[in-house]
User: Fold these one by one.
Assistant:
Number 1:
Amino acid sequence: MESFFTRYRNLVVLLVILLAQIIGLAVQVRRTPDGRGALDAGDGSGVRLIRYWAQALVSPPERIIHSSKLGSVGLWQNYVDLRNVRRQNQELQKTIDRLRLEQAALLEDARQGQRLQALVKFQEKYIYKTVAAQAIGSSGSEQSRVFYIDKGSADGIARDDAAITADGIVGKVRDVFPHSSQVLAIDDQSSGAGVILETTRVRGILRGNANGQPQIVDILADNRIKKGENVLTAGGDEIFPRGLPVGVVDRVVNDPERDGFINILITPAAHLDRLDEVLIITSTEPRFNPEQQQDLATSEAEKGAEAAAILKQEQEQQKASQIMAERLPGLIDPMLPPDQQPLLDSSNPAPVAHPPQSLHPDRFTPGAGSTPGNDSEPATPDANAKPATDSAAKQTKQPAPKPAQSTKPPQAGAKPGTPQTKQPQTNKPGGND
Amino acid sequence: MPLLAADLRRDPGIRRYPMLAYALVPLAALVLQAWLTGVLAPFAWFDLPLVVTVYFALDRRSPMQGTIMGAAMGLFQDALSHHAIGVNGIAKTVTGFLAASIGVRIDVENRTIRLVMNFLLSLLSSGLVVFVTRVLLGLDLEWRWFTALFTAIGNSIIALVLFPLLDRLEIRD
């Protein structure tokens, strides 16, 4: 066995390292319901530690390179210049070189000053709390469009903070370290930002394509979308504030995977390939100056007075409608005492309407004293007995709802179902004599 | 399998370098790659960590060392990106192993061979990245063949310049 491992130790080492990395990948990637893989948005503690170490190792040299402005181009130019110095008059050439370097440095400083001045003006105008940061490095991979800035959690930067410039949005903070942060640019394939087209108000999600150009995906075909239309942030992603410039429409292409859908390619407003300084929005709480705060307080006070006036007006209207209701004729019954008015009867908000008095009452008439088939009712001696007087007829009605009803004459043929009607006042022919 | 067990023989052609070179050269490659990609974007068609991996693997002629060097460089690159850690690691592990294994049998002093080796191994590394991302992980990744081609050409050109410079670091008896 020992000879096997000794003989194939190269292959064993290869397989062990590959297996360890595959297991590590399996820990980081989860399976979505549709069967595809998805990288966890937030790194695990172990992965985060590895990234932190790698970044801590690379960041200091990058800072040195960036701060000293000794780029590869500058080094090459210095090398060429030094060769020329040896061939020519050394003192004179050195002076010229020094002046050139100083001029370049001053020019660079002036340019940086102008950029910073524009950034400060933009920051003053901007109502959110921001932190200015410098881009100091990138991921080194074209498929991972992230860059590093020289500000981290110690400066108040948090994950998912928006990175912007005076020209437009740049990306969002993906990972935060104590003194640096990783920003995911908007042209990365895994980025996402809610955007809206300024004129057509078409909303969509912005992400990068393989060429590193941002595009709005999953848009239904719409021939109103034209080249040059401004694209703004929609504000629905809770990362970028609403209304920030994103870019302009470059061209519209059909979605190769779905019919009827288009992708809108965007020319970003910010120079994503030449980023130096960016602003990180650390708080979306509005930052108002004292004058703006005073205006807000005044506005609030006026709004309170206006609300009180509206309330008073509503109360007056309610009082007027109550007075009007009391004066309405249909709701007042003059025959009833004031405490029994239907208007004040809260127990029966909708009183039952009584049927009109029948012209020819018979035994089926409501209130006649008996119902058909009701044999328990004592029979009258004379079924055709007629109430003698109006007063007798009136006594069968309790109470009379309206005065007009009481003026009606007594109806003939009514069955005397009440004790009052059982006493015949007159005898009809053929009656009991 | 004699290819895999090549380092058992003490080859007089194996080059040796100071320990500092093993630490600083890869670190410099990683830092420059991270910095230059930001400066030269979108024309950063090169992969300095891969070139350095291939150089040490070819000259050391040790598949084990090539494997470890490739894994370290790839994992470091993954750590600097926002991708899963291990994608470039696997690609460069295999690349380093193959470079060292092939380096046993060929004349690594020949510039044409170095150029061709860098070109082919760069293409292989790009292909492995796509394979791991799409097939093993099932992640969406748009891939452009001409970018891989330009990167391979860029790596070959850089190798022509860089390899003689790195040769000067060799410890000579």
Number 2:
Amino acid sequence: MRNSRYLLYILILIILVTLPLHTGVYLLNVMDVILIYLALALSWDMLLRSGQISFGMAGLFGVGGYAAALLHLNTGVNPLFSIILGGLAAGVLAWLVGMAVLQLRGMYFAIVTLALAEIFRVIVRNLPDLTGGPEGTILPSAIFAGNSTKTYWLVLTVAVVSVIASEIFRRTRIHFALTSIRNDEVVAKSSGIDVFKYLVFIFVITSAIQGIIGGAYAHIYGFVSPEGSFSIDFTLLPIAMALLGGMHSTWGPVVGAVLLGVASEFLKLYIPYGHLLVYGLIIVIAILFFPQGIVGTLGQRLKKPR
Amino acid sequence: MNPFGKLKQSNYQIAIISVILAILLAAWKPHVLIEGIQRACLYAVIALPMALILGIVGIINLAHGDFMMLGAYFAYFFNVYTGVDPLVAIAPALLAFFLIGIASYRAIIKYVLGAPELNQLLLTFGLAMVMEQLANLIWTSRPIKLSLRYVSASAAIGSFTFGTFEFVYVGAAIIVLVGLLLFLKHTSMGQAALAVGQNPRGAKLVGIHVDRTYLLVFSLSIALVGAIGAIFMTRHSIFPLVGAAFTMKSFCLIAMAGIGNLTGILWCSLILGLAENFVLSFRGYAGWADILFFALIVCVIIIRSRQRQVK
């Protein structure tokens, strides 16, 4: 059972890695978008497992993107390395911010993270000498000179790293610590869990992942701008995906991201300006009717003897 | 549960700070003072219904500003089809949004009242998104505006001229605040609502119909914010995302004043409105004005949480 499961993972990975051999550029571009949102949805869900809901994903995504783009532009470091530096920048920022913000719980944490994302955006917009101001900055060329196969492999690497990170968190004691913090903080504290330390740790890790995704995104499209890089879409769409697929798991956000990513490609053809409407409806319907998400609901059905 | 309760004594401090700020400004930049007060009252009047929902029903309505946006569009199309002035359209807007409030409470909000806070936040977040995108789809993102002659009315003191129409916000803020306070303190329905806000179970035990009270308070707040949309659109151009900024600002004001402190909202919005206009008045730094609210919301929430820990 266990071996066959690993075999399945390896098979899926091989198919994904060799995908550029079978398909054209369009499908690869679609896959890029899906994988980027998949990684974002996973990173959001990883923090959610501690009971802290963040609305500030777009902020760290944008910070990572700007850091990567500006470092590459001004110091000439290798784009790939600058993406990692972007993740590092987001992680350090999250550490500094998290020291203060992670004292908060529930709606106060959520609102503060949303406000912080806005603050980052306003700061970036108002420093035209460094960031190019409202118009943003255009990189001389996209990463790998726009080669779609290599770009796809880059995004795939980021997504696979997020999946592995998420699985590591699910299988080690970190998982139990975070779950107990989510369920009852007082109990967690009295069983010897350093709540604050774990929260800062998970916040920094997820923010660094978001920063790396932001850096990759900036280099793939060769462009950063306050409205584009800090767009609320990077907060909303991953949340919708994680909700639809099922929270507190690795495969929930993955399933949600694939389903919604494919669906939105079709929806863009039919309602070009309204595909976000469907995302909003999915959030509302998911919360009202199946708060466990697709994976969670199916898992319950399968486990329960009928 | 409610880290911001019982802070009403701070009202006086906030009031004194805002009065001192106002006097300093009046001497230095009278424009900032007048426009700041007008802007502040606009913020306050939008935040008040949200505070009512948060204080009594206990839900953060992240779609609050979007109800205002719908109200603005309602007044606009009411004007286009019937030729009625938007300010007269306040009455039908009140009625229409009371019904919309009932519908959204019955269809959606009711089912997450007992759910975890996370679900409530996400639900209203999703609702906001649906409303914005629907508006975007139907009316497109093109800003629209009525050209009304009376909105550019102005008055002059010596060589100093200022717009007088915007004082309608001041009037609206005072009417809504006084009306809500009278409703809560002097009607049996309002007292029931207060009791439900303090302790739903206790209220139920003494025979208050909790669900009906929630329905009433929610619909009343939506009706108010819809009507404010009608006032808003007389002066400002409207587009689908116009309300979203006000949701955040309203929440900021509520967090600053403390949940359940309606009068405090007016004072806090005065500080913020004046500070924001003050920054806006410096050429070249106007872009930083947006940050004030957000920086303040972060500081206020963190400071308040520290205070709670010390106690």
